[in-house]
Design brief:
By secondary structure, the chain is α+β, with helices and mostly antiparallel strands. The chain has two helices and four strands, in the order H-E-H-E-E-E. It is elongated.
Length: 106
C-alpha cells in the first residue's frame, strides 16, 4: 500500500514538472529581446513587408523590430502551438515552401 502511494506521488510530481518545462525549437525559430518604449507590445502591421518573402532568422529579427515586439517566432504549417495569446509576440506563419503567408501577434 505504501509503495503504491509513493509511486503515485512520484508520478504526480513528475507530471507537474513536465508541464512546467519549456520546449524550444531545435532550429532556433524564436527570438527574444529586451523591452522597448512601447512596452514591447506587438503591432503586426509594421511587419507586413515580410509577407511573400522566404523566412529566415534575419527576416524574423527585422520583422520583430518593425513590429515593436519583444519576441518573435516562425510557425510552420504543422507546428504544434499553444493557444495562449501573448501581446508581445510576433508570429510569422509560413507555407510548405517556407514563404511568409501571414503576420500576426499572439
Amino acid at each position: 500500500m505504501f509503495r503504491t502511494r509513493a509511486y503515485l506521488a512520484t508520478l504526480a510530481v513528475a507530471a507537474v514538472l513536465a508541464g512546467c518545462s519549456t520546449g524550444g525549437n531545435a532550429d532556433g525559430g524564436a527570438v527574444q529581446a529586451s523591452p522597448v518604449a512601447n512596452d514591447g507590445r506587438c503591432d503586426a502591421s509594421g511587419a507586413d513587408f515580410a509577407i511573400g518573402k522566404p523566412a529566415s532568422a534575419e527576416l524574423l529579427e527585422q520583422a520583430r523590430k518593425a513590429s515593436g515586439s519583444q519576441m518573435a517566432r516562425i510557425l510552420k504549417p504543422h507546428d504544434v502551438v499553444t493557444l495562449e495569446y501573448r501581446s508581445e509576440r510576433l508570429n510569422l506563419n509560413v507555407d510548405e515552401q517556407g514563404k511568409v503567408t501571414r503576420v500576426n501577434c499572439g
